[in-house]
């Protein structure tokens, strides 16, 4: 008799893979039919979870292509736990090696940008340092102060203008002319000092200093 762990592993492989393995099923429902229904629900839910985290990537490639691409990602990187907030952390790395998107070299960095914004949104709350509070310290104390970044802060560097691509794919953006992907690097700071995630383009020296 298979152990519970074996049963769970076979069932998970059947849901995310191409082969069926059904140990039991209600007599009124054929095992393959029930598994197909469950597979569609699981893959559909996980695909929607990815689309929620990477809406601009989906907008760039289109709904149908994103759905097919997401299912390939799900096969090689299924969720490792029940909490979905962190799912998609390896999506950018997957895109780097995914042959059908090699003609879109900016896509992995666009995914990195979106996931960084997702992380910033869910980062711990923290009151940002107020300059008046800092000014209130005696000058003799300054050498002993230790400053740290806000928990939401993320730094993204790219060989492509992914910040422009992201902005031009927002619902509120009215863009009648196509975006020209010039050979321009992007150095981006992402943070959520209050309730809204903010993205700021930095000069390269400032980015290097913060890095």
Name its key features:
globular; 3 strands; mainly alpha; 211 residues; three-stranded antiparallel β-sheet
What does this structure look like?
The protein is mostly helical and 211 residues long. The chain is built from 9 helices and 3 strands, in the order H-H-H-H-H-H-H-E-H-E-E-H. Strands 1-2-3 form a 3-stranded antiparallel beta sheet, sandwiched between helices. A hairpin with a 6-residue loop joins strand 2 (186-191) and strand 3 (198-201). Helix 2 (31-53) packs across helix 4 and helix 6 crosses helix 8. The longest helix is centred in the N-terminal third of the chain and has 23 residues, at 31-53.
How would you summarize this macromolecular structure in one to three sentences?
Helices cover 46% and strands 7% of the residues. The chain is mainly α and 211 residues long.
């Amino acid at each position: 008799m298979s152990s519970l762990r074996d049963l769970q592993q076979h069932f998970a492989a059947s849901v995310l893979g191409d082969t069926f393995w059904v140990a039991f099923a209600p007599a009124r429902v054929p095992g393959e039919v029930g598994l197909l229904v469950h597979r569609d629900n699981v893959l559909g839910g996980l695909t929607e979870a990815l689309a929620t985290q990477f809406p601009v990537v989906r907008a760039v490639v289109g709904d149908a292509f994103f759905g097919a691409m997401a299912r390939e990602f799900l096969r090689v990187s299924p969720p490792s736990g029940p909490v979905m907030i962190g799912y998609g952390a390896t999506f950018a790395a997957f895109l780097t090696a995914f042959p059908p998107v090699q003609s879109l070299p900016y896509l992995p960095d666009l995914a990195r940008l979106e996931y960084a914004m997702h992380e910033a949104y869910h980062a711990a709350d923290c009151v940002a340092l107020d300059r008046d509070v800092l000014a209130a310290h005696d000058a003799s104390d300054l050498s002993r102060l230790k400053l740290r970044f806000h928990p939401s802060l993320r730094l993204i560097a790219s060989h492509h203008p992914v910040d422009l691509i992201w902005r031009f794919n927002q619902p509120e953006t009215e863009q009648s002319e196509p975006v020209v992907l010039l050979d321009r690097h992007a150095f981006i700071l992402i943070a959520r000092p209050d309730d809204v995630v903010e993205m700021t383009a930095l000069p390269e020296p400032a980015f290097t200093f913060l890095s």
